[in-house]
Design goal:
This protein is α+β, with helices and mostly antiparallel strands. It is built from three helices and eight strands. The chain has a single domain, classed as Roll (2,3-Dihydroxybiphenyl 1,2-Dioxygenase, domain 1), CATH 3.10.180.10.
């Protein structure tokens, strides 16, 4: 298992348009694209960073979505730190062997529960392999 670096940082906001304006207009970041995930109940905005990572703004489309519940209980702010890993399956197996609490194993996204990571939700993202 090897954490290769930060892939992206997800920031939860109550108001999607205000969040976009903050990061684009006030902080001067370039808005690459927006999206909406019905499955996750969120709107997303993506702001690329020079190092290849990105800032992702997420806002709930309903109060029952995980992001909506997080805003209700903890307010706006850091939602998740996404770490790139060299081998997702091996990383999950290693973490489980160490007793680390994971969320979403077997699904499209795997997270380290905040109780196992000093209060931070960590998303595990497979490294993108370069094509030859």
């Amino acid at each position: 298992m090897a954490m290769k670096g930060v892939d992206h940082i997800a920031i939860r906001v109550k108001d999607f348009d205000e969040g976009v304006r903050t990061w684009r207009d006030n902080l001067g970041m370039e808005l690459e694209r927006t999206a909406e995930s019905d499955a996750l109940g969120i709107k997303q905005a993506f702001f690329p960073m020079a190092n290849g990572g990105f800032i992702e703004i997420v806002a709930p489309t309903n109060d029952e979505a995980a992001v909506g519940r997080a805003i209700e209980s903890r307010g706006e702010g850091l939602h998740a730190l996404a770490m790139e890993v060299d081998d997702l399956d091996a990383t999950v197996k290693d973490l489980e062997g160490k007793g680390v609490k994971l969320i979403g194993v077997g699904g499209p996204q795997v997270f380290i529960h905040p109780k196992s990571a000093n209060g931070i939700l960590i998303q595990l993202t497979p490294a993108v392999k370069a094509e030859n």
